[in-house]
Design a protein that fits this description.
OB fold (Dihydrolipoamide Acetyltransferase, E2P), about 35% helix, 14 helices, globular, alpha/beta, six-stranded parallel β-sheet
Amino acid sequence: MIKITRTISHEELKTQQRFSDAVADIFSRREENPLAYVHSFGCQQNVSDGEKIKGMLAQMGYGFTDDVDKADLVLFNTCAVRENAEDRVFGNVGALKHKKRRNPNMIIAVCGCMVQQEHITQRLYQSFPFVDIIFGTHVLHTLPSIIYQKLSSGKRQVLIPEENGSIAEGVPVQRDSKFKAWVPIMYGCNNFCTFCIVPHVRGRERSRLPRDIIKEVSDLVKEGYKDITLLGQNVNSYGKELGISFAELLKTLDEIEGEYKLGFMTSHPKDCTRELIDVIANGKHISRHLHLPVQSGSDRVLKAMNRRYTVEKYMDIINYAKEKIDEVALTSDIIVGFPGETYEEFLQTIELIKKVEYDSLFTFIYSPRKGTKAADMPDPITREEKGKWFEELLQVQSEASAHSYDKFVGRTLRVLCDGVGKSRDNLLTGRTIHNIIVEFEGDKSLVGSFVDVKITSALNWAMVGEMV
């Protein structure tokens, strides 16, 4: 049975617009516009949600500040993937208690994945009574009505509906960058990996209509955006309920004329097809970078994780990508110390890393998430021992990265300049079509532009070059 995705109707969005106008009217009677401090923790999907939050707040009349002490509204958009992310949120929220005493009119809001968990919401509500607004991932588009209800009644607002999620098109977006854009193509996840909380807090998979995605990307290219990243908890599952594959969507987007780089994240190996790899190989704008999280090099651990692929199947995808995509850059996620993992199984992961020769890795020591199956599994290995494994893995990958980048030394590559280095004023940073970081000297006016850079040396995390 195919699940029909619930789309937020135009009438519902118009209702939110009326609330937005009502909030703006309240603020119009004040001498100064209120300021909002918005901080998003976690993944790029959260960053994208944060841009929508800012878009709605701007329509309501809020300006923005990076100084919490100047803010009339402080909003934390939270992440639930790892324990340290939750600890950071509680620490930041707790630090607002004294600020709220000095400024009782300050509104404090906490939203996102973390509060979609009942035990977290209860803790926030009971232990942090100065938090005014708590809302989950499925009601993001109702922020105008939430703010209006708080301003008009003065009462705490808590909205954590239990549902599988919906899609709201037409929510205003205030992007953090003038040349880099995140474009969600789907939401939620159906995989239920035993270590992952995402399906429990983001709901089930639901895909945006192709026409809406194509229009958004086309508009971004016309507006001069150079780096566009498609987002989804598992982009390879895109379109299953719509009768279109992710490979077909990506091919269509690649045909949009303009000077830009098109990337995507995150791919699940069980759904990564040869068709998709062929599209990347033949693309004009698609990044020659495949982020394919393997998590472990042990088939037993992968089964315990409910990943639904074997190391052999994973290597089949990797080898096909190396064969078809010119100088493909490969990255992955690795979990060290999954419950029940032995040192011998960890060494299988080390062997996989050596075999694949990843350009870089995102590595994590296992963090139990309440509500997932893995949280109830026996876990006899100490945190200290897992830390030693972790350091061993980092050393192996450090050597692999430096070797991977050596092949580019002496060559000239097209680089999108995306920032200014921290060590000195004339140092710029950028990324190649392989999504590899490059440092080079130049004027900061080049940020947001494509430039040609000759690679002069390779580090274990980036490359160094000079503009041609």
